[in-house]
Write a structure and sequence with these properties.
The complex is a heterodimer of chains A (331) and B (773). With 331 residues, chain A is mainly beta. In chain A, 47% of the residues are buried. Chain A has three helices and 27 strands. In chain A, the strands form seven sheets. Chain A has a four-stranded antiparallel β-sheet, with no helix packed on it. In chain A, strands 5-6-7-8 form a four-stranded antiparallel β-sheet, with no helix packed on it. Chain A has a single domain (15-25, 36-328), classed as Methylamine Dehydrogenase, Chain H, CATH 2.130.10. Chain B is an alpha+beta fold and 773 residues long. Chain B is built from 25 helices and nine strands. In chain B, the strands form three sheets. In chain B, strands 7-8-6-9 form a four-stranded antiparallel β-sheet. In chain B, strands 4-1-5 form a three-stranded antiparallel β-sheet, with helices on both faces. The longest helix of chain B has 36 residues, at 597-632. Classes of the chains: A mainly beta (331), B alpha+beta (773). At the A-B interface, loops of A face strand 2 and helix 16 of B. Chain A: Residues 55-120, 125-325 form the Photosynthesis system II assembly factor Ycf48/Hcf136-like domain. Chain A: Keywords: Photosynthesis, Photosystem II. Chain A: It comes from Candidatus Polarisedimenticola svalbardensis. Chain A: This is Photosynthesis system II assembly factor Ycf48/Hcf136-like domain-containing protein.
Chain lengths: 331, 773
């Protein structure tokens, strides 16, 4: 069925009809539009993206908010889902995708004004946790229990692909061979190299644009929730209980950095001025002014969990998380 | 011989017997009144028949309803992390366990074992008590507790947002489980003061703030206790006033003792019927006293007038008795109807007030229309007394001569135009009267009372509100592991969060989402309600029933909506949003039921008051109109008496809107009482006026004579009643002050209406009168 979907054109319609008959529940949910709510910008928001003067944040109840003034004000858009959206990716000022629970994938082609639901599979009972596009047609969506979806038509159709990385020799295959870890976060240092930060201390790398993956040696048994590529082969990897590692050889060896926090670290960013910021729960911000070698802890008063941090063109920062989306002028 | 003559004969030929019987009865009533107690209860204040309160009654056992106490300790210096503060907090927590009626498993503070923290570690979730069993009062130990507080997510709830205070929360049971007795709120309030606030104050480590229904009742009772002072003041001023009016020590004594007798009987009857005095009803004896005195004065002035006309010995008292039995009886009957009409409000405390007050008024019929004339028949007047009186009358004469000119057609017209203007003003303003409470804090107490200060301190330091309306969701057994049920509840929570006036919402779905995220290493990306019911089970299994968020088989789950205030508009908006959501999304599987919590009670009460304000006023006015029709047998006469009354009631509404007093359980009865008592003046004046008219006097002369004899009494009556209720304006209790303001206004303005507007109306309404004048 999925193969047919890939053919595009009439195949898509046929496929949608087939999905419709196979999962009547899904068809009924087609009409589940998100509700425009005054407090949407203060609800639980999980991810954001900013590009070409456009900023988009996504979160609970299918909340999608768009800002065209560098994150100062937000405008909620009605979208065809009420599921918790976990990640958003903008290709440019027009084209973008958002993913979330119930394996929902939304696509916009008009700068976030309208969104189509291009994938939805609540019966899978596994959420999508991140999305990334190499160009405007090819992309991946990753999620729980080794969920790995691929699109080659700009996100109109998606096909599952088996996620079978080459295992490291000494890997302690505790869970019995199934590559069912939660794939939490995908990053791209540029070129064909990709990293996936995953559950239970696993981290994967691909050097060919996501065709083949290999498992990297892990410094830690707790989960990783993100990675941040720096200059050259340098890379930060972070996750549970304040664990932050740095590798200078594309993930072959790791050094534990001092963070002075046990809060979960969720997202990292390189700012325009070259400083590096890693954000986390309980209002945690770790700031490095030396290119990611040492970090100082900034504990935010509100202690609200930060899920994502982004920078707008004019240098402002947007914190996305438990308190919604808020712009701050400086750290 | 008419019935009235027979009664007169019976009474006045056996005067000693009559007095003897009254003395015996008063002794008996006084004896039973010695057991009078202040009787406050939570359920008594609820409109139990209201839909919302049915929900409250259905689930009271499981969720305790609205009966919570919160004790906040705020460190005098610095933050809570000192060994001394911890000692104080631990001791206070322990004390709370031993306060009568406290539901011990539900006591919460950082020291209680039901407050736990959980944290995500590499191999799962770990947890423990916030203050660990091996807590040591060392810097390290305190630092550990600080960490645990953060992990437990109780900042804002049990620990203040700025870490300078901590909270102890407890639920009270209406029936003490140990003794099976109904809870004595006053003693709970006392123990809270003595064992916690006083001890903490002596220690000097922390300031104590206590709020909760028990404290409200305690403070109201304490405030009501101060009523004795008000009673003394009222008695003093009334005595002075009566003396100025009667110019006789003996007459003053007789008038007052008849009214005091009425009060003693009323309290005695109350006790015999098994009622106590509710703090809300503590003003009733005042009213009875004031009504008694005002009618007594009418009797005295009538007797005096008879003697002046030449009646000798008993004859004056007997004539006065005959003259006043009907108008006095009718007037008191209309007072009684005013009180009884309040029975429309199905709230026990108000109904008790209606019953006890109407009993009191019925007693006045006996003491003032029977005992008083009998006693007065013993009084003889000296020439010196008459001389004194004559001087007084002379000094009043110019005043009445001026007043009576309102019956001149042109002056009457001016009065009518002014009244019409007032009517328009009244209609415009009265429309703005809000139902319910308009002020912050507990409405029964003054805004600057200690309770309301405590309440503000707590809401400022902590993120919890004191105004809660709980919507109870009823589902099937195990509804909490049904995704559809839980997500509908979750959508409801979000919908309500977006309503103006809603501060926050606590409910099972939110907790379940946080726990589900906890099972997924605390990641925010898993903060959802799992569709799979076995996964959902994992998320709710760890929520204890003592959280108050679900019952044993999780078929019932309250959603607690904290509102920013309890102003009537806020409540109305929240309730209507709940109803709208219920109509759109509610189903057999997810039944949203309004409402418990203090704001739920207010919502029900407001709706009860709103639904009853017109039936009550309609009832009072039709009864009064009917009584006047029977007495005067003329529609024009009824208009003369009723129109001023209607205008004054309207102006009372206008006054409420100007002063920002809401129409609520304590003020709606006042409007009804004001009508019932206000009509007295009109009845006395019109009766006497009719007698003169029937005797052939022209209108203006009839009015002049009426005012000279009855007018003095009416002015005096208005002043006495106003003194009796005016003292309440200084009560420490807000609702008494509101009632006092309104009653004083109604008594005074009704008096003016009866001596100015009534004659002016008569001049225009009664056929041919204006020409004769």
């Amino acid at each position: 069925m999925i193969d047919r979907v890939r053919q595009g054109g009439p195949g898509i319609i046929l496929a949608l009809l087939l999905i419709g008959t196979a999962f009547p529940l899904v068809a009924q949910d087609e009409g589940d539009l998100s509700t425009i709510a005054p407090l949407a910008s203060e609800s639980l928001l999980l991810d954001g993206a900013a590009r070409d003067g456009l900023a988009v944040v996504v979160g609970e109840r299918g909340h999608v908010l768009v800002s065209r003034d560098q994150g100062r004000t937000w405008d909620q858009k009605q979208v065809p889902t009420v599921s918790l959206l976990t990640a958003v990716y903008l290709h440019d000022g027009n084209l973008g995708w958002a993913v979330g629970h119930d394996a929902v994938i939304l696509r916009t082609r008009d700068g976030g004004e309208t969104w189509d639901r291009v994938h939805y599979a609540p019966e899978e009972e596994r959420p999508l946790l991140d999305v990334w596009f190499r160009d405007e047609t090819n992309g991946f969506a990753i999620g729980a229990y080794g969920f790995f979806l691929v699109t080659e038509d700009g996100g109109a159709t998606w096909a599952p692909q088996e996620f079978a990385p080459v295992e490291e020799d000494d890997a302690d295959d505790f869970y019995g061979g199934g590559f069912d870890y939660h794939l939490n976060h995908l990053s791209n240092p540029g070129g064909d190299r990709l990293f996936i930060a995953a559950e239970a201390g696993t981290v994967y790398r691909s050097d060919d644009g996501g065709e083949n993956w290999e498992s990297l040696p892990s410094p830690y048994e707790g989960s990783f929730f993100g990675s941040l590529p720096l200059e050259g082969d340098a890379l930060l990897l972070f996750g549970l209980r304040g664990h932050l590692y740095r590798s200078d050889d594309a993930g072959e060896t790791w050094n534990l950095l001092d963070t002075s926090t046990t809060a979960m670290l969720t997202d990292g960013i390189r700012l325009q001025d070259g400083s590096v910021v890693v954000a986390g729960l309980s209002g945690t911000l770790l700031v490095s002014r030396d290119g990611g070698l040492t970090f100082t802890l900034i504990q935010r008063e509100d202690r609200l969990g930060i899920s994502s941090i982004l920078q707008t063109k004019d240098g402002g920062l947007i914190l996305v998380g438990e308190g919604g989306a808020h712009r701050i002028e400086e750290l | 011989m008419t019935l009235r003559d027979r009664i007169e004969q019976l009474l006045f030929e056996h005067r000693k017997w009559v007095i003897g019987i009254f003395i015996a009865a008063t002794l008996f009533m006084g004896y039973s009144a010695r057991n009078i107690h202040i009787d406050a209860g939570f359920s008594k204040l609820l409109p139990l028949e209201h839909e919302y309160m049915q929900t409250f009654v259905d689930h009271r056992e499981e969720f305790g309803g609205a009966n919570r106490i919160l004790i906040a300790l705020v460190a005098k210096d610095g933050d809570i992390f000192t060994p001394e503060f911890f000692d104080t907090l631990r001791r206070s927590t322990d004390e709370v366990f031993f306060i009568p009626g406290v539901d011990r498993p539900r006591v919460q503070s950082i020291f209680t074992p039901n407050v736990r923290f959980t944290e995500v570690v590499e191999d799962g979730i770990s947890g423990g008590n916030v203050v660990p069993d091996d807590y040591q009062p060392t810097p390290e130990g305190l630092a550990q507790v600080r960490e645990n507080i953060l992990k437990a997510g109780i900042v804002g709830r049990l620990v203040s947002n700025d870490f300078t205070g901590a909270l102890i929360s407890a639920q009270l049971l209406e029936i003490d489980p140990n003794t099976g007795e109904p809870l004595d709120y006053f003693s709970v309030a006392n123990e809270l003061e003595e064992k916690i606030r006083d001890v903490n104050n002596a220690e000097g480590v922390a300031d104590t703030h206590i709020i909760g229904f028990a404290k409200v009742i305690g403070d109201i009772t304490e405030g009501a206790g101060r009523v004795a002072i008000f009673f003394a003041i009222t008695l003093l001023f009334t005595t002075l006033a009566v003396y100025i009016f009667t110019r006789s020590f003996r007459l003053t004594l007789i008038t007052l003792s008849c009214s005091v007798t009425a009060v003693v009987w009323q309290i005695g009857l109350l006790t015999l019927l098994g009622y106590g005095i509710d703090p809300m009803g503590i003003l009733v004896p005042f009213l009875i006293f004031a009504i008694g005195v005002s009618h007594g004065v009418q009797m005295v002035s009538t007797v005096r007038a008879e003697v002046f006309e030449g009646a000798k010995g008993q004859a004056a008292a007997r004539t006065a008795f005959r003259r006043l039995l009907i108008p006095g009886g009718i007037a008191l009957l209309s007072d009684t109807i005013g009180f009884i009409s309040i029975l429309f409000i199905k709230i026990q405390v108000i109904q008790e007030m209606a019953i006890t007050a109407s009993m009191g008024v019925a007693v006045i019929i006996l003491t003032n229309l029977i005992l008083l004339p009998v006693l007065l028949s013993y009084v003889t007047f000296t020439d010196r007394y008459w001389a004194r009186l004559a001087r007084q009358a002379r000094s009043f004469a110019p005043f009445w001569n001026t007043v009576v000119r309102v019956t001149e057609p042109r002056k009457a017209l001016v009065i009518l135009v002014v009244s019409l203007a007032l009517l328009v003003f009244g209609v415009l303003k009265a429309r703005d009267v809000a139902i319910g409470d308009l002020r912050l804090g507990v409405p029964e107490l003054r805004p600057d009372s200690r309770y309301n200060v405590d309440s503000r301190a707590i809401t400022e330091k902590f993120s919890i509100g004191v105004d809660i309306i709980s919507v109870i969701v009823e589902s099937e057994a195990e509804g909490c592991i049904d995704h559809e049920v839980m997500s509908t509840m979750d959508d409801f929570s979000w919908h309500m969060s977006n309503v103006e006036g809603v501060q926050s919402i606590i409910g099972l779905p939110r907790i379940a989402k946080v726990i589900n995220s906890g099972w997924n290493e605390g990641s925010l990306k898993w903060r959802v309600l799992p569709r799979n019911s076995s996964v959902l089970t994992q998320s709710v299994a760890y929520v204890p029933t003592d959280s108050g968020l679900l019952n044993e088989d999780c078929s019932v789950m309250p959603l607690m909506i904290f509102t920013t205030d309890h102003k009537a508009k806020t409540i109305e908006r929240v309730v209507s949003e709940v109803k709208q959501f219920r109509d759109e999304r509610g189903s057999e599987k997810v039944r949203f039921r309004l409402a418990t919590g203090n704001v739920g009670v207010m919502a029900a009460t407001n709706e009860e008051v709103d639904a009853n304000q017109f039936p009550i006023l309609l009832g009072v006015f039709s009864a009064v109109i009917l009584l006047c029709l029977i007495t005067f047998r003329s529609i024009r006469a009824v208009l003369c008496v009723i129109l001023p009354l209607g205008l004054v009631s309207l102006l009372a509404y206008a006054l409420m809107s100007v002063l920002g007093i809401g129409l609520k359980v304590s003020t709606l009865p006042v409007v009804a009482l004001g009508v019932g008592i206000g009509v007295d003046y009109g009845i006395y004046i019109y009766t006497r006026f009719k007698e003169f008219r029937d005797g052939g006097e022209p209108l203006q002369e009839a009015f002049r004579k009426t005012l000279v004899i009855t007018g003095n009494g009416v002015v005096f009556t208005g002043l006495t009643l106003a003194i009796g209720t005016g003292t309440w304006i200084f009560s420490p209790l807000q609702f008494q002050a509101d009632m006092g303001t309104l009653l004083t206004f109604m008594f005074l303005v009704n008096m003016l209406g009866a001596i100015i507007l009534l004659p002016a109306l008569a001049a225009w309404l009664l056929p041919g009168e204006s020409r004769k004048g």
